[in-house]
Amino acid sequence: MAQSNSPARIAFVTGAAQGLGESIALRLADDGLDVAINDIPSKVEQLKAVATQIEGKGRRALVLTGDVTREEDVRDNVVQVVGQLGGLDVMIANAGIGIHKSFLQTTTEEWDRIMAINLRGVMLCYRYAALQMIKQGRGGRIIGASSQAGKKGTTNLSAYCATKFAVRGLTQSLALELAEHNITVNAYAPGFILTSLAYHPNDAVNGLRPGGTIKQLFGLPLDSPEAQPEVISSMVSYLAKPESYFITGQTILVNGGTLFD
Ligand SMILES: NC(=O)c1ccc[n+]([C@@H]2O[C@H](COP(=O)([O-])OP(=O)(O)OC[C@H]3O[C@@H](n4cnc5c(N)ncnc54)[C@H](O)[C@@H]3O)[C@@H](O)[C@H]2O)c1
């Protein structure tokens, strides 16, 4: 639903071929934004399907492939968004991976990889979005993916937790630095959301419902709260709106009440 006669605001969502990124991209299109979507090159067909849905909502879509760990990819993606859609108003640094292993089982290579995607990737998205939004001089919304695991340590998730705690710190610091430019910086902290990140091949092997194995690895009861991606995209939708201007530096839990802060 477009909100006025003014030009559509423009969003860029990373990791948008599936899961939370896809849900956020579609919700922002419902909100009247034009949406650029990124994911790794092997997911280009999924990205095209998401773009078709965005266009079906009457918005413009732009498919971009790129690896968020590579500075040139993030910089070039932002250049494409600005060149082809006309600017950047909302950056969603969503791309991320999980590693479900104990601390002692996690190799240094696995540590470096998750740090590169979940933290360096978010940092690069924040940087190139901030540079563009400052240049435009019309404020903006920068939103990153943290997690409930960015607020409380979890078994078999130490490397992931470290990245998501770090996103929270980065989000707070950048919010302070960008306030003078009317750019807010926030993060979402989902609890257990049913995307591929929550699934495990052993779910079927052990006769568990999807998500059951990961819950066991985290020490959660099998019937602990879980939800679909829309609970996140609806909250992100609000954070992306102009009216959310008084919220900044926050990492907001959406978790069915499994942790209070
Ligand atoms: N699902 C949950 O319960 C949950 C909970 C807390 C936080 N999160 C966070 O939400 C975000 C989205 O997760 P999801 O559940 O949708 O997972 P998902 O695996 O379904 O989607 C993540 C997407 O990111 C993409 N991606 C991975 N590495 C990339 C890279 N280097 N460059 C570009 N894209 C890349 C993947 O290809 C994938 O399409 C992640 O940051 C995740 O940590 C998810």
Q: Would you kindly provide a brief summary of this structure?
A:
The chain is of the alpha/beta class and 261 residues long. It folds into two domains: 10-191 and 227-254, Rossmann fold (3-Layer(aba) Sandwich); 195-226, no CATH class.
Helix content: 40-55%
CATH architecture of the largest domain: 3-Layer(aba) Sandwich
| CATH fold description of the largest domain | Rossmann fold
Strand and helix order: EHEHEHEHEHEHHHE
The small molecules bound here are: nicotinamide-adenine-dinucleotide
Mean pLDDT: 97
Low-pLDDT parts are none
Please state how the strands of the largest beta sheet are arranged side by side: 3-2-1-4-5-6-7
CATH class of the largest domain: Alpha Beta
CA(first)-CA(last) distance: 34 Å
How many domains comprise the coordinates?
2
The shape, in one word, is globular
Strand % is 5-15%
**C-alpha Rg (nearest Å):** 18 Å
Which structural class matches the secondary elements?
alpha/beta
Instruction: Tell me the CATH superfamily of the largest domain.
Output: NAD(P)-binding Rossmann-like Domain
Essential attributes:
261 residues, alpha/beta, Rossmann fold, seven-stranded parallel sheet, 7 strands, binds nicotinamide-adenine-dinucleotide
List the helices and strands and how they pair.
Elements: E1 10-13, H1 19-30, E2 34-39, H2 44-56, E3 61-65, H3 71-85, E4 90-93, H4 108-136, E5 140-145, H5 158-178, E6 183-190, H6 202-205, H7 212-218, H8 230-240, E7 251-254
Parallel strand pairs: 1-2, 1-4, 2-3, 4-5, 5-6, 6-7
This protein binds nicotinamide-adenine-dinucleotide.
